[in-house]
Specification:
With about 150 residues, this protein is of the alpha+beta class. The chain has helices at about 45-55, 105-120; strands spanning about 60, 65-70, 70-75, 80-85, 90-100, 125-135. Strands 1, 4, 5 and 6 form a four-stranded mixed beta sheet that branches. A two-stranded antiparallel sheet has the order 2-3.
Length: about 150
C-alpha cells in the first residue's frame, strides 16, 4: 500500500461551508477604479423573462390554453413587453387569473412580485406596469389516467 498523499495547498482562501464570503475583495494596485471598469447591459429579453417568471410565481395566475382549430396544442403563460430606459423599465403584461379569486388582489400581488424580482435580480426598477387580465377560468386539475 502506498502512503497517503498530502493535500495540495489551495491558492486562495476558501470560506468554510455555511460561512459568508468576505465583504470586500482586494484588487491589485494596477486594477482600474470601479467607475472605469465598464458597465453591465441587460437585454430586454432577459428582463421580459424575469417578469414572466415572477408572474408565474404568484398564486392565482394561470396559463392559458392554446388551441388551433379547436384542438388544444399546449398552454401559454403570461406575456410581457418591456421597454427599458436607463435603469427603469416600463412593462405591459397580459395574464390569465383563476376564477373565482379576487382579481384586484392577484394583480396587486403580481405588481409587488415583479417589482421585487426585477430589483433583486437585475437592479432595474419598475417605472410603470400596465396589467391586462385576458381571461378568468377555473384552475385545471391534473389529468386523470385513462386506464385505472
Amino acid at each position: 500500500m502506498s502512503a497517503p498523499t498530502a493535500a495540495r495547498p489551495v491558492p486562495f482562501p476558501v470560506p468554510a461551508q455555511g460561512s459568508r464570503a468576505p465583504a470586500a475583495v482586494a484588487l491589485p494596485g494596477w486594477a482600474p477604479d470601479a467607475d472605469e471598469r465598464g458597465y453591465l447591459d441587460i437585454a430586454p429579453a432577459v428582463l421580459r423573462t424575469i417578469v414572466e417568471y415572477a408572474t408565474d410565481l404568484v398564486p392565482g395566475t394561470l396559463h392559458r390554453e392554446r388551441r388551433v382549430a379547436g384542438v388544444e396544442v399546449g398552454d401559454a403563460g403570461p406575456r410581457a413587453r418591456i421597454s427599458a430606459t436607463g435603469n427603469a423599465v416600463d412593462v405591459r403584461l397580459e395574464l390569465a387569473c383563476a376564477y373565482p379569486a379576487p382579481v384586484r388582489d392577484t394583480v396587486a400581488a403580481v405588481r409587488a412580485k415583479i417589482a421585487d424580482e426585477l430589483e433583486r435580480i437585475s437592479g432595474y426598477r419598475v417605472r410603470s406596469l400596465a396589467v391586462t387580465v385576458s381571461g378568468l377560468r377555473e384552475p385545471t386539475r391534473p389529468a386523470q389516467p385513462r386506464i385505472r
